[in-house]
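Many introductory courses stop at the sequence. We go one step further.
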Amino acid sequence: MSQMGLVIIDIQNNYFKGGASELFQPDAATEKAKEVLTYFRENNLPVFHVKHLFKLNMDEKNKEELLEIHKTVEPRGSEVVIEKHYPSSFLGTNLQQQLSDAGIKKLVIVGMMSHMCIDTTTRAAQDYGYEVILLEDACTTKDLVTKHGTVSASIVHDVFMASLNGTFAKVMTVKEFLDM
C-alpha cells in the first residue's frame, strides 16, 4: 500500500481577519483542514506544512506574525515545514525530496488559495507522479477582478476544483475522505 501524506499549503495568518489578504471564509476552511490534520496525527501519517514567504509591505504591522502558520493547524513535533517563494510548493523547495524520502505516493492537499497555490501545486504534483486527493472544503480563495467585473470567491473556488477534478486530482469533501 502506498504511503499517504498530508500537504497543508499556506494556512497563514495573512489570509485571516486582520491580515493583508483576507480570504473568503478562511476559518471554515481551516477547521476542515484541522479535521484532516487530526486524522493524520492520530494515524501517525506524515504531515508537510508549506509556508509562503510573502513579500509584505515594509510598513505592514506585525509582518512576522502575518507570515506564521495559523494556530489552528500549527506544526508539531517532527512535522516538516517547507518554506516557499512561488505558488508551486515544489518550485525552489525540497518538498519533492521530503516526500520521496518518506515514501509518499499519494498526497492529500488542503489550504489556501484555491486559484493560486493549491492549483499550481496540485498540477505540479502530476509531474512527479503523485496521486492527489484535493479536499475542496478545506481550501478557500478570494474574489477576483476581471475586465468584466468581480468573480465571487465561491465561483472562483468551484471553477478551480472542477478543472482539477479527474485529471489532476480526485476532488472530494473532508467527510468523503474520512469516510473512505
